[in-house]
Amino acid sequence: MTLRVDDLRVHYRTLRGEVKAIDGVTFDVGDGEILGLAGESGCGKTTLGKSLIRMDGRMRLAGGAAELDGEELPIGDDHRMNPFRFTKVSIIPQYSMSAMNPTRRIGRMVAELLRSRGRQLDTDELGRRLDLVELPREVLQRYPIELSGGMKQRMVMVISTLLDPSLLIADEITSALDVSTQKAVARTLVEFRDRGFVRSMIFITHDISLTYQIADTIMVMYAGKLAEKAPAGVIVGEPRHPYTRLLISSLPEVGVRYTDRRLAGIPGEPPSLLDPPAGCRFRDRCPLAFDKCAEEPPVVEVEPGHHVACWKA
Amino acid sequence: MRRYFGRKLLVYGLTFLVAVTINWMIPRFMPGDPVQSMLARANVSQPAAVEAMRAHYTNLFGLDLPLWKQYGNFWAALFQGDLGTSIWLFPTPVTDVIMRAVPYTLALLIPAILLSWWAGNRFGAFAARRKWLDNTVLPIGYVLTATPYMWLAILLAWGLGIVAGVFPVSGGYSFAMRPNLSWEFVGDLALHWFLPFVSLFLVAFGGWAIGMRNMIIYELEADYSTYLSSLGAPQRLIRRYAFRNAVLPQITGLALQLGVLVAGALVTEIVFSYPGLGHLILQAIQNQDFFLLQGAFLFIVVGVLAANFIIDVVYVLVDPRTRTGMGGEAA
What we know:
The structure holds 2 protein chains of 2 kinds. Chain A is α/β, with parallel strands linked by helices.
């Protein structure tokens, strides 16, 4: 087992109180597993990804623990977490386009970053990885501004995985790319895993169809909680949680003419996490809601590897 | 690259042309007649003699020609380095009068500008994100930068000069001394230089420190800083990058502030009766000395333009983005 997260609670400090962005999430990611993390905007995907590597100033660990390769991951302690970053846990951020210092040549920046972590730059290995993502080796002599968006994205992917981390968090990395590039990036991530550059991966996206193409397991989150987690095929083929079902059914299908039948979304919006309602958080939008939903549904393993938090599942 | 500098030079040339023209116009359209005041100074009572003298002076300064000819002559003389004759210190040439004052002004301005910029940036970068310093020293920075130059100058002159009696409050050197190359004289010069320098330095320092502090905070919030922190890079490296990137707008700021600093130096010189250009301008205005005023302004305009040009060049050298932008344009 690579990563084990137990009852993680992460809150944001705001002037109006604590926003419970992650409210008790338990899951694990196995060796060589790619976990797709899906859900709509504001459900806590990015917060979850960030909290596993570096919490920003407004975030607070309110409870829970994480364990990586059998070792405790001190996620609540910025200082103690530092040795793990980059070497054990790494991230490809949402903002790859602006992740590199604009006034340093890329090669020099990478060398300085590695030196600051007490590592030497292995130029040959770096070159091989650039070849793999089809970047010319000359990019190291260039400034980030001279690269296209897709090139920057690939460069950041190479930098983030340079020290072969156990866990890679890929946070919405395809959101800013066009569809053809999205697919190439997703395939590169699988390639990275297959070659052992990263042991396992959390692939965060709001795009379930893309997740389905590369993820082994998909975890759907809703309002800071786990809704459903199952192998990718099961989530798409036979989802049990009403939210997952609605999410899947709101995807366009090939061969259907949407001029006749309007594509349905999920009406309503997620509850405020400042003071979330008791019981199931999807209750207000759920077509199947009944009295019991006023009570919070526990996460149940309905089949091996298939976890659902719903009374009706 | 060449096109860039060619365009820059053209813009600077045009600015120079306009500035010199305005500079020539201002004293001529100012109320008052310098020849009249010279005649009054001469104190001659015979009307015939007064008329003769008036004709002589008017001819001497070229004021009897039509305006467009005066303007043409002015440019012609300018390229020969001739700025005319001072009225106030008649018959010393304006160039000599200015050259006597320039070393004082430069000795005040150059260290004040460079040191305040350097120290302000260092200090602002250091104070950013350090609660204690941020809360105590930055309000002082705000007060300093909001202080008018001359007011701070007066405060310093009063506090350190009159009350404490440590520094002299007026002149470039003691009245009891004659300029010579001795340690005693140099020490005396430095003593007189100190207060005007400090008042210029402090006001500018506050501005730079605040600007840098805000820029550094902005850079530390930037994506590349967050990314480096996520990869566990030490604060030292992140701050180094942030500083370098934050310095770029500060260089532009220096170009913008240059004029303000020069103006500040002029009023500061007046407060301390420091024998630089500012003092000279005041005298020129009081004596309706067109030519001196014109010459002093011209010198300042040329100085500011030259300094701006240097900053432009430096900016290209330090910011790769402007350089690659130019490369892309050429390709």
